[in-house]
Recover the amino acids of this structure.
């Protein structure tokens, strides 16, 4: 994400074209994910270890390549847009469809599209099989390695997109590692919480966003209803900034528990490298 | 009747694993329209040979032809395309997907969008044709093992497999399911399929197979022998290389005081349904109490409650008078309660640790194996070597990972570990399931030796013959309740069968008395 944020902003500043920035950001995320794919799929290394290492590579690259970028000033950003018609819906219209970044709408469309892909299409079914029980898929001639490569790469593209969304739309600019402020980690919790359901992923992500916003807003006013605001921004307010992360994780864990009992938890083979011919899974 | 063209011909197959020659120049023929049984001890190389045929392993040497044409498979996909379908010993199903999804997984059609309603219909039609019924919309994890197996077979039939390879299909079935299964097999043969059938149950093999091939240490000791001219005893000898005693001599019991006392135990299963509805049983020192019953009637839960692995809702587990209910597995271990669990890979062993480590897994806290801080490597190695010899565990060395052991040898390793703690109580769940005749003999011998030593033994088994042969008393469990307790010499298979189907002993006796 950070790499995407950096590349997105850098290219946008350099070329004046935010769309090109977005594209480069996605490719950068994709390329970095291929490193992770080689290590975990070809060399069957532990996914957590490789994930952490890849993360450090990404941070390092971003900081080095993003040197001086924080003083680069502003650039053309991705456009905002109001959907004609839908924005007129009372309450929901102004919240969801008025003057939002174009990427927000992309998110709206991506969720049902991915839900349909995962649940109702042949490749989506194969994706689930490879993530749940790869040896079953392998026995039926599905190329487990190729599919895992493909989806790790797509994951990387999306992470790059997420980064660029921040640096080119939500809070534009480059603030070194504070650009993303570790929000990408929340994705891990969301994968477990989502249980293959993109709508749940959407809900988890929006909840995190809402909590973050709420804390920011809480730091503003001096009075809350009739009380003095205890959350009033005492600099630096690290504790408050941590809250959305902690709360999200707690809520996600609780939300996952009931489903675990029904044995539809996170992808069952999450974190497990696949080796053909090993006994068991 | 078998025809002249061979459905499958395997010649001189060699397959090596690190330290093991799993298949050593094996020949195997399958005629069209026959059931060909593949027999052999645990670890003889049966699954390996069939995995080679199904394209999962590539052989180092040897040739395969299917219906007269030379083939070379690079993946299971090639084998499936050639009409070979294998149902594995460990099912290859995605638990979170539906029956239909599992069946169409990996196929080219439909290309992109799945029309589930239409596919479900197609699957139902296929089920009708072969009499293999299972709800297409159900998720795999909701199905019984027998139903899952039907899905595996349907998967292969849907792909148009003409040759079906079934790796120990009956090991996981209840006696009732086995009857249905055999009928299904006959139906498939009648519609032109050829079947390879791996099994350890010799009676079954003699009943359904036309011919038998026997493997021993990776080599074929008999190739395509007709079942008409052979007997159970001869087959067993070909497998094990010596005379096998099917039922061991059992000296009369000398029961001592009650060691294990279960009072009115109630517990839930994993799905939150009540699995034990008030079970009370006593086991004395030096006797074997057999628990008969169809799988899934509370046996696993009862064993887990006794060994501290599951919480009871109410009731008592008294070991030598001390109530240990709802304590912990550690307490059970310290009271010398040995556990031979049903799930050998998940509960009974740590598959990725070495054989030696698995063998000391219950004694590492105690001197001389371990102290508070460290493990004594040389003592561990010495003990492991001794146990490996004493229990005749076939493994290249004590450093192999436990998961690479064959089923029978893993079970022997678990027994070795449990018996080395000199138990006062043994809880054994399906201890001979999936084992070859030689290994079964070894396991039963261990249990009888322990009985003679004065250990109280609780034996859970679905094999009625085994329960009858080993037990001093038999209790029958049905839906979490004990239907009655009988002595093997005073009962009949029929009486036990009735109790397994849910009739209480009093009622059965009442009826027969009424007739007299
Ligand atoms: N993937 C593997 N890696 C290493 N060794 C293996 C592997 N699979 C099997 N073996 C070894 O090869 C030998 C043959 O194993 P195989 O599974 O074919 O036996 P089997 O006849 O099917 O036994 P069982 O009746 O217990 O299923 C055994 O010694 C086993 O330990
Ligand atoms: Mg096998």
């Amino acid at each position: 994400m950070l790499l995407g944020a950096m590349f997105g902003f850098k290219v946008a500043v350099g070329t004046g074209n935010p769309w090109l920035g977005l594209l480069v950001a996605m490719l950068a995320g994709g390329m970095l994910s291929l490193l992770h794919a080689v290590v975990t799929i070809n060399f069957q290394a532990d996914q957590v270890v490789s994930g952490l290492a890849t993360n450090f590579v990404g941070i390092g690259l971003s900081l080095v390549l993003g040197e001086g970028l924080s003083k680069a000033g502003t650039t053309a950003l991705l456009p905002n847009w109001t959907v004609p018609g839908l924005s007129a819906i009372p309450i929901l219209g102004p919240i969801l469809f008025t003057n939002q970044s174009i990427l927000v709408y992309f998110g709206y469309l991506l969720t049902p599209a991915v839900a349909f892909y995962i649940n109702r299409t042949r490749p989506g079914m194969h994706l689930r099989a490879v993530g749940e029980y790869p040896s079953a898929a392998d026995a039926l001639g599905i190329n487990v390695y190729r599919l895992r490569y493909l989806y790790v790469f797509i994951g990387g593209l999306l992470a790059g997109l997420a980064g660029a969304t921040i640096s080119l739309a939500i809070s534009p600019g480059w603030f070194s590692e504070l650009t993303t402020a570790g929000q990408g980690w929340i994705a891990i919790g969301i994968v477990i919480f989502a249980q293959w359901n993109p709508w749940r992923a959407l809900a988890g992500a929006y909840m995190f966003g809402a909590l973050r916003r709420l804390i920011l807003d809480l730091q503003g006013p001096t009075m809350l209803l009739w009380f003095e605001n205890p959350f009033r921004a005492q600099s630096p307010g690290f504790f408050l900034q941590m809250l959305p992360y902690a709360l999200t994780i707690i809520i996600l864990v609780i939300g996952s528990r009931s489903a675990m009992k029904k044995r539809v938890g996170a992808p069952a083979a999450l974190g497990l490298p696949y080796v053909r011919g090993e006994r068991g899974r | 009747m078998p025809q002249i063209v061979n459905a499958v011909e395997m010649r001189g197959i060699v397959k090596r694993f690190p330290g093991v020659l799993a298949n050593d120049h094996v020949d195997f023929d399958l005629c069209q329209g026959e059931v060909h049984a593949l027999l052999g001890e645990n670890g003889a190389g049966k699954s390996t040979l069939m995995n080679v045929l199904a394209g999962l392993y590539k052989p180092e040497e040897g040739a395969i032809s299917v219906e007269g044409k030379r083939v070379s498979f690079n993946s299971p996909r090639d084998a499936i395309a050639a009409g070979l379908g294998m149902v594995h010993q460990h099912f290859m199903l995605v638990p979170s997907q539906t029956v239909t999804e599992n069946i169409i997984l990996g196929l080219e059609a439909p290309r992109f969008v799945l029309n589930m309603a239409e596919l479900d219909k197609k699957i139902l039609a296929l089920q009708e044709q072969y009499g293999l019924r299972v709800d297409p919309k159900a998720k795999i994890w909701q199905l019984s093992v027998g139903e899952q197996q039907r899905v595996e077979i349907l998967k292969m039939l849907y792909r148009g497999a003409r040759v079906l390879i079934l790796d120990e299909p009956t090991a996981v079935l209840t006696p009732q399911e086995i009857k249905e299964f055999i009928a299904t097999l006959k139906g498939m043969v009648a519609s032109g399929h050829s079947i390879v059938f791996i099994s350890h149950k010799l009676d079954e093999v003699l009943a359904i197979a036309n011919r038998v091939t026997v493997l021993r240490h990776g080599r074929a000791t008999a190739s395509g022998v007709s079942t008409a001219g052979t007997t159970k005893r001869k087959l067993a000898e070909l497998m094990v290389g010596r005379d096998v005693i099917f039922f061991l001599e059992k000296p009369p019991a000398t029961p001592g005081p009650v060691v294990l006392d279960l009072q009115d135990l109630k517990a839930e299963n994993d799905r939150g349904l009540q699995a034990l509805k008030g079970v009370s049983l006593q086991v004395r020192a030096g006797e074997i109490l057999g628990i008969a019953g169809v799988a899934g009637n509370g046996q696993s839960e009862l064993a887990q409650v006794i060994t501290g692995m599951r919480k009871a809702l109410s009731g008592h587990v008294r070991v030598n008078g001390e109530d240990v209910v709802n304590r912990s597995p550690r307490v059970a271990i310290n009271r010398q309660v040995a556990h031979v669990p049903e799930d050998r890979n998940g509960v009974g062993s740590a598959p990725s640790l070495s054989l030696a480590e698995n063998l000391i897994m219950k004694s590492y806290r105690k001197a001389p194996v371990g102290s508070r801080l460290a493990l004594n490597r040389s003592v561990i190695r010495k003990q492991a070597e001794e146990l490996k010899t004493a229990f005749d565990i076939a493994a290249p060395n004590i450093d192999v990972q436990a998961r690479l052991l064959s089923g029978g040898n893993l079970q022997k390793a678990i027994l070795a570990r449990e018996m080395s703690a000199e138990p006062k109580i043994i809880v054994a769940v399906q201890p001979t399931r999936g084992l070859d005749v030689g290994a079964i003999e070894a396991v039963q011998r261990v249990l009888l030796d322990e009985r003679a030593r004065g250990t109280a033994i609780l034996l859970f088994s679905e094999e009625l013959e085994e329960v009858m042969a080993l037990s001093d008393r038999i209790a029958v469990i049905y839906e979490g309740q004990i239907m009655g307790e009988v002595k093997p010499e005073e009962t009949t298979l029929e009486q036990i069968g009735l109790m397994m189907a849910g009739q209480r002993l009093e009622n059965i006796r009442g009826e027969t008395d009424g007739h007299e």
